[in-house]
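ok so for the tutorial part 2 we go from a plain amino acid sequence to predicted structure tokens. step 1 is just haveing the sequence, like this:
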Amino acid sequence: MKIRILLTATLMIGACSEQPAGEPVVRTQLDGSEPAEIVAEPTPEAAPTQAAAQQSACSDKVFEGVSLTHCIADPAEHSVTTALAPSSGSNFGTIGAWAAGKNEGDIAFVVNGGMYGDDLRPIGYYVEGSDRLKELNRADGPGNFHLKPNGVFFGSGSTWRVLDTETFYRTIGDRPQFGTQSGPMLVIGGKLHPEFQDDGPSRALRNGVGIDADGKAHFVISNAPISFGKFGRFFRDELKTPNALFLDGNVSSLWDPANGRMDSRRVGPLLVVRDK
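step 2 — the prediction. this is what the tokens look like for a chain of 276 residues:
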């Protein structure tokens, strides 16, 4: 009896598991009293659920030698809302914890959306679903948030704006559907923040948002440490946003379902961009 043996070659593809980027331990100062930060380049992690079958609103850029990810929210195609990352439970304070159990099919992308306290709650103006959960903060103090002028990213429907805090205080009477306050402003009326150096020693992972002349919101997150001056120039010179706001540093995070990116740093307020 002949015994036929069929040999089947099996190709196995091993995926490398990258380590999380880690937790930030300091916030940036611009007064020169602190040494320049050394922050590891972020490591995007695989999304916890299957990536949406859609074209990403985000793309990679390189500006003055620094890798950035640039995401565009178009009011004709997207909506913007605010949310808070969970302050307890598994992986609390992360975008992934907020995303758990949600249908990612209509999510274009999510970024961290402003500075927060030890309780992971906003330290500045915050509106979610037209409900104001935190008053406008005009106080003086230390750190980036209080590096005046700071500002507010806000909007209702398809109209989104970035204004410095004092202009917002003087001119905005109606409560928007969403709003988040942070600081410093990166670009004010087409000019860089007056305290920025061209390429100062303070370097960190950073993210921000600016609005162009067509009303589109440009969200940018650095994939390597970047100075405030260089970051502001990208908004002013490349994206042509007359006003742009710094959202946070070191903890800067992005969820881009279409590209399978889910950053795992601890954040507080979130900006959620959905497909209409």
